[in-house]
Amino acid sequence: MSDSFLKQLECGHCGATASIDRLIGTCPECGGPLLARYDLDQARGDRIPEPGRGLWRWAGLLPVLPEGRFELGAGGTPLLPSSIGEWLGIGPTWIKDEAANPTASFKARGMAVAIGRAKALGATSLVAPSAGNAACAAAAYAAASGLPLTVFMPKDVPESFQVEARAYAARVELVDGLIDECGKRAQAMAERDGSFNLATFREPGRVEGKKTMGFEIAEQMGWRLPEVIIYPTGGGTGIVALWKAFDELEALGLIGSERPRLVMVQAETCAPLVRAFEAGEAKAEPWQDGSTVADGMRVPKSFGDRLVLDALRKSQGRAVTVSDAQMIEYARIMAARSGLFPCPEGAACLAAQVQLAEEGWIGSGERVVLFNTGTALKYLHLWPNATHPG
Amino acid sequence: MSDSFLKQLECGHCGATASIDRLIGTCPECGGPLLARYDLDQARGDRIPEPGRGLWRWAGLLPVLPEGRFELGAGGTPLLPSSIGEWLGIGPTWIKDEAANPTASFKARGMAVAIGRAKALGATSLVAPSAGNAACAAAAYAAASGLPLTVFMPKDVPESFQVEARAYAARVELVDGLIDECGKRAQAMAERDGSFNLATFREPGRVEGKKTMGFEIAEQMGWRLPEVIIYPTGGGTGIVALWKAFDELEALGLIGSERPRLVMVQAETCAPLVRAFEAGEAKAEPWQDGSTVADGMRVPKSFGDRLVLDALRKSQGRAVTVSDAQMIEYARIMAARSGLFPCPEGAACLAAQVQLAEEGWIGSGERVVLFNTGTALKYLHLWPNATHPG
Known about the structure:
Rossmann fold, homodimer, alpha/beta, four-stranded parallel beta sheet, globular
């Protein structure tokens, strides 16, 4: 397994740099989100990706020392050519099925890297706020790393997420509020007892882990990126990560300067980033009383809002909302027509694709990649004949 | 994608052969289970496995025409080196995590091949009996193939399996009895309306699909097989399939004549094959009133019993039982110590490993591969703090 070409950490807001040898979370100058920067000239001569399976094939471009590379099988998920685009008359569609990750969601990628980095740099305990899947992913990698973890989740999160996180021996604290409130509790705990805070954009590892989704799409499509990528967005790490992935691949000479247009999807009842995008704002105001059946999109405020909005605009992208009813309807269509069992966030991407194809923003020959970010098994309460309320 | 080197079908009981061009299930001479035979000399000159991802890399050794190779991402699951063997003091342990498959279980492999074969050879509807996961896997591939499917499941199967199978638009029939009773209903339906019966060993595809687990282990261990493989056993397809996989790899020149000892694990409250193995029988009598929390092992009778017992004996293997309480205990240990969320069948393998290590049958330096055949997300009712009865 190769060394990492990590060179420094750089603030996404003020540009200040920080050393990679110390376990820090946010920018020491302004408190902004730190991004990992690599010696890409050096990396260019190396074999990236390495042969084999999963996310650590890209270890040269991840900020994790070898001793932090815990292996639960994250990454290497399938990119499924789907006949559903044809069936709906909306053009060639691929689905990146992130349910094949450990803990059955895309959150495993970010947590593998964040926790691996934290452990290798000396963390002794961890804390994370979560709307659902992130808690499970963090708990699994905490168990693999041997570090104790506390997660703060909204008290009405479906039971599946709580039971799974507890199975990995995480301490689960239920909070009267949404993930922003959980974030405050996590931050307070980190300040109080020194636990390393894994919250989105509060440390540089999670963006890096999610970046591997972009690496894999490029490789799986023969280094010819699709015209459009549609991504369900809570905090927005994935949007920033995909954009960063493509820049790094270009620097390595693996792709050219072409980029997909990125589409961000939020629930119409909790859409702070979409509202800010539409209004031309550089930052997003918190969304009041957000609620949606898609727990991963119940995020009223993103700490990385500026980075997310910037990446979306650079890509000539779009920001759209879909209703809960649409998510449920398109989840049923995806399951019955394609054999996938998508979470509502994944179904939201298909609903958005239909919307953008109908208005002509996506052309009929354009190649579209959707993300199914996790399994419906944690959302059984949304399906017909389920007697359990969730 | 390469052609298949399939040459003929051969009865595992009487040795009669049958043509590959027609969609048949069991031996036309004696009604026994048919096994796929390949032109391995020819295959030896070909590139097997092909590069890429998943089970269709092995298409040369699978009985499926190209038009039947539906892609939901089956196969290519991780083989995880686990510190749990060290922690328990029982030696080097790897876990083949089959939860990374579509429908989050190993059943996807067999159904991908069985349904792909059936569709390519002209089937117009499908039927399957199932104790749980097979129904979901069959339903997903039926949806992908566009074929209608009816599944018969025991009426007390956990709700998760029913909801998932119905999501893929399968018709789910609940039966007052275990899978043997479901099997009778499936067989009757097949005879009545011509639906192709996907029951274990009643058609040759499922063994072939599961064979890819053996191929992958060999490849992932650098073509040096482990000393012991522990496998949870309901019908026993996997045992037959692993053994067949290794014979074919040897014929291709990819491995030598060394073989792992195979260990079959059943629930102590439903252990027909273990009983027959211990008694030195060639066949297994049906188990009366079998019951266990591990739905995949609630199989009172295997149609492939002779093949399973034969493979186990040839491997110098063992057959052991574990209790439901042990499965629950070891599932908790695996989750909390390793970050996996195993089904009870997967936990049963760890319990069996501990048992065999303690009695010295597994030596301290021997490399052991366990199978986690599926996700605990379909068994949440077995975990602490779950309020839903399953």
